[in-house]
Write a structure and sequence with these properties.
Elements lengths: L1 E6 L11 H10 L3 E6 L5 H11 L4 E6 L1 H8 L8 E6 L5 H6 L5 H9 L2 E10 L3 E3 L2 E5 H8 L2 H7 L2 H10 L6 E7 L2 E13 L3 E2 L2 E2 L11 E7 L3 H12 L9 E6 L1 E7 L3 E4 L2 E5 L2 E13 L5 H4 L5 E2 L2 E2 L11
Parallel strand pairs: 1-2, 1-3, 3-4
Antiparallel strand pairs: 5-6, 5-17, 7-9, 7-15, 8-9, 8-14, 9-12, 10-11, 12-13, 14-17, 15-16, 18-19
């Protein structure tokens, strides 16, 4: 196995990654993995694109979900696989994959893993996402997070940003097209999900990442009480049947609002409405054997034109 490890040294827990120990795990499994460090936004995408051009088997993103999103961009609809070594704040993809959050244990799980083929969402015409797109309140919170506080406190920084944003946040009038079906709502927040977790909690427990569709959850209403009601319902896990919540599974959703609302992809700001979201292709994800089949499907039988590699026998739990 020939891989490239793309390390974001600014990620939330990057300093805790023992790279020599991780590299030793890969070497023991017979993997040849070189290492590239990022210095600024876009470096991870460039490093991944170079690996694709050079015929690498996989690119391993070591950082948070934002680093994973950067690495994802050149891998969609290509044979090179995406993998992760969690070192971020939330590590939602690692949690979805049931990958250990301790880097050496994660490396041991990966060398005993398999390739899976999953959907990649597309926002607009040129940016892919693997987990979700957030529109409205969630994206406003992402924009308001203090980077220094995020490095020090992790997920608590999002709570602090939410408290600052919520009192003045009003949402917007929206026209939403769900596979062509029109709905008019006063939109507070919408999530276009490819997987299940959102803000470390299950948003769409029945979602599948390999079904060619996206799950849309729309929170709508006006005023303080609507915002409070939605917040409590989500925290209590009762949002699925709560009033003022629409849910749909679609191939394409277009959201137009007045005024424009911010958008975030996999936890990183990305423009504003109007925007169309759809499944834009697929990506091979190299995942541990523990990855849930009801979310990611079955491992590939063939990969890169040959039978998929078999596990090395290392423990999936490390």
């Amino acid at each position: 196995m020939r891989g490239r490890l793309v390390v974001n040294p600014a990620a939330g827990s990057a300093r805790a990654v023992d790279l020599p120990a991780v590299q030793a795990v890969f070497a023991e499994a017979g993997w040849t993995v070189d290492c590239v460090f990022t210095q600024q936004p876009g470096d991870a995408t460039r490093a991944a694109a170079e690996a694709v051009a050079a015929g690498y088997d996989l690119v391993i993103a070591s950082g948070g979900d934002g680093t994973v999103n950067e690495v994802l961009q050149p891998l969609v609809n290509r044979p090179t696989a995406l993998s992760i070594l969690p070192a971020g704040t939330a590590n939602l993809l690692a949690r979805e994959l049931r990958l250990p959050l301790q880097p050496v244990a994660a490396a041991r799980s990966l060398v005993a893993g398999h390739p899976f083929r999953v959907d990649a969402g597309l926002a607009g015409e040129r940016r892919y996402f693997l987990l979700f797109a957030g529109i409205g309140f969630d994206a406003a919170v992402v924009q308001a997070v203090d980077p220094a506080l995020k490095r020090r406190t992790g997920p608590l920084s999002f709570i602090a940003a939410s408290v600052r944003v919520m009192p003045g946040y009003q949402g917007a009038r929206a026209l939403i097209r769900l596979d062509g079906r029109r709905r008019r709502r006063h939109l507070l927040m919408a999530v276009v999900a490819n997987t299940r977790l959102f803000a470390l909690m299950p948003l769409v427990p029945e979602a599948r990442a390999d079904d060619g569709q996206l799950d849309v959850v729309i929170f709508h209403g006006v005023g303080f009480w609507a915002k409070l009601r939605h917040s409590l319902a989500f925290l209590l896990g009762r949002h699925r049947a709560a009033p003022g919540v629409d849910r749909a599974r679609v191939r394409t959703v277009t959201i137009r609002t007045q005024p424009p609302l911010p958008v975030e992809l996999d936890g990183e700001p990305w423009g504003s409405t109007p925007m169309t979201f759809r499944v834009g292709g697929a990506v091979t994800v190299w995942a541990p054997a523990s990855a849930p089949a009801d979310l990611f499907g079955q491992p590939l039988a063939h990969w890169r034109g040959q039978p998929a590699p078999q596990p090395t026998g290392a423990s999936a739990s490390g």
